[in-house]
TrEMBL record:
<dbReference type="GO" id="GO:0033969">
    <property type="term" value="F:gamma-glutamyl-gamma-aminobutyrate hydrolase activity"/>
</dbReference>
<dbReference type="GO" id="GO:0006598">
    <property type="term" value="P:polyamine catabolic process"/>
</dbReference>
<dbReference type="Pfam" id="PF07722">
    <property type="entry name" value="Peptidase_C26"/>
</dbReference>
<dbReference type="InterPro" id="IPR029062">
    <property type="entry name" value="Class_I_gatase-like"/>
</dbReference>
<protein>
    <submittedName>
        <fullName>Uncharacterized protein</fullName>
    </submittedName>
</protein>
<dbReference type="InterPro" id="IPR011697">
    <property type="entry name" value="Peptidase_C26"/>
</dbReference>
<dbReference type="GO" id="GO:0005829">
    <property type="term" value="C:cytosol"/>
</dbReference>
<dbReference type="InterPro" id="IPR044668">
    <property type="entry name" value="PuuD-like"/>
</dbReference>
Length: 239
């Protein structure tokens, strides 16, 4: 299965109707606003690195490190997703942010990124297979509830950038952390009631997981769809 097809399949299997967004012109603010108003829930998917100009000062050491290791650049996608989030976030409709999407959402909310994560457990292997490591999930968080009340999972990992606690955007709290020893954040959610769940791993890649992780991944998508349906019902009520 093509990697991009796993996201709509996961949404559909969770009971949702998926639509792969045909991105508007990055500079078309009206199209981004219309798209944000139309959809009930947004999955921010994995992909290449975000250009460092969105989170680091040009000329800084962090900027130069990020630029040297910049993988699969896609400037138009950066602009489109950040513009869409500018309009979508105020609606307070649900977001599930995965891997690159986790990083994009943190940047959109005012956070930063580690330009290059040295631990190989986080990186995609040279043969294209995922890396693996364990994560601890804080109990009594929305993320833990969405994962079927799991507090520890063995997850796939396909990234070389990440988020540490000091780079977490204002208003977000860490809900999962790597056990690799580098204290990378692997999950976040807001401190308020908004449904914004971010995970650094890839829950849509079911073939990467054992049975327990597969069930938790499916539960995560079902929780997102339930939140989107609740949001849709609320929007449909007479004002």
């Amino acid at each position: 299965m093509e990697a991009g097809a796993r996201y709509p399949q996961a949404v559909q299997e969770a009971g949702g109707t998926s639509e792969v967004i045909i991105a508007p012109d990055p500079a078309d603010d009206r199209a981004a606003a219309a798209l944000a108003a139309r959809i009930d829930g947004l999955v921010l998917s994995g992909g290449g690195d975000i250009h460092p100009r969105h989170y680091a000062r040009p000329g800084s050491a962090e900027y130069e490190i990020a630029l040297r290791g910049w993988l699969y650049p896609d400037d138009p996608r950066d602009e489109i997703e950040l513009r869409l989030l500018h309009h979508y976030l105020p609606t307070q409709k649900p977001i599930l942010a995965i891997c690159r999407g986790f990083q994009v959402l943190n940047v959109a909310l005012g956070g930063g990124l580690i330009a290059d994560v040295p631990a190989r457990e986080h990186n995609t292997r040279r043969d294209g297979a995922s890396g693996y490591h364990a994560v601890q999930i804080l109990p009594e968080t929305r993320l833990s509830q969405a994962l079927g009340c799991q507090t520890r999972l063995y997850v796939n990992s396909r990234h070389h950038q990440g988020v540490s606690r000091d780079l977490l955007a204002p208003g977000l709290r860490a809900t999962a952390a790597s056990e690799v020893g580098d204290a990378l954040i692997e999950g976040f959610e807001p401190a308020d009631d908004r449904y914004l769940l971010g995970v650094q791993w890839h829950p849509e890649r079911l073939a990467d997981f054992g049975e327990r992780e597969q069930l938790a991944s499916q539960a995560l998508f079902r929780a997102f769809i339930d939140a989107a349906l609740t949001s849709h019902s609320a929007d449909a009520r007479p004002r």
